[in-house]
Amino acid sequence: MAENLNVKVSGEGRSHLVLLHGLFGSANNLGQLARTFKGEYRVLSVDLPDHGRSPWLAAPSVEAYAEAVATWLIKNGIEQSKVIGHSLGGKVAMQLALDYPSLVERLVILDISPLSYPSRHDNVFNALRAVLAAGVTSRGEAKSLMEPLLDEPRVADFLLASAQLSHYGTIEWRFNLEGLQAGYENILAAIAPKRDTGGTFPGSMLVLRGELSDYVPNASQDAFLSFFSQVDVVTVMGAGHWLHQEEAEFVHKAVRQFFATTG
Fold it and tell me: What is the DSSP string of 144-196?
């Protein structure tokens, strides 16, 4: 099943750059990064399992997602890549680097840590289920229904990017809502190596965290260093969790400089 991941390929560079999106998202979420770097790399924008147009898994987890990405890369003869992951995609990227270190050249993590997280998407699950229960037939109706249930109005637009019409003409979700909710604890769990590869990633990693976000607390420094010996944590001023959109120019410059350095 993993070899059937939906992956958008752009650019004609000799080396590969893998982009991994966050929870409830799709490959399109990191489109700005793909467009920025396609002149330098062959960019692989991945729909993670249970998202976008990729297959659904029986038991969603960060470990299973990392294995699926690794399997796809190996099946397609891609021996090593730079990897950028946002939020859930960042956890998947870290897991990939720990379990399959030979596949990852350099790692950029956008606003997520290896730590476990408390539940923070209950309102999102409620909003998603409310749309299904109401049987709405347009994105406008769905947005009006969801916004009062969400902490940030912009989240409704993000979620609706994964909406589609069912055979009955009602809104349904392209991602695996049932599976994601059932496997939510696995998605929130702390990162830990699942394969006997030494337990640490020997390559370099850049962590960009939003100043206004609480996803990467100062206390996460020790967790990073326990698995990643070469870590540089940079705070993106004025940005929240969506730092790659809110401060795109800064993020693109920081990533390009990181990729250009040696060692």
Answer: HHHGGGSSSTHHHHHHHTTEEE-TTSSEEESS-HHHHHHTHHHHHSPP---SS
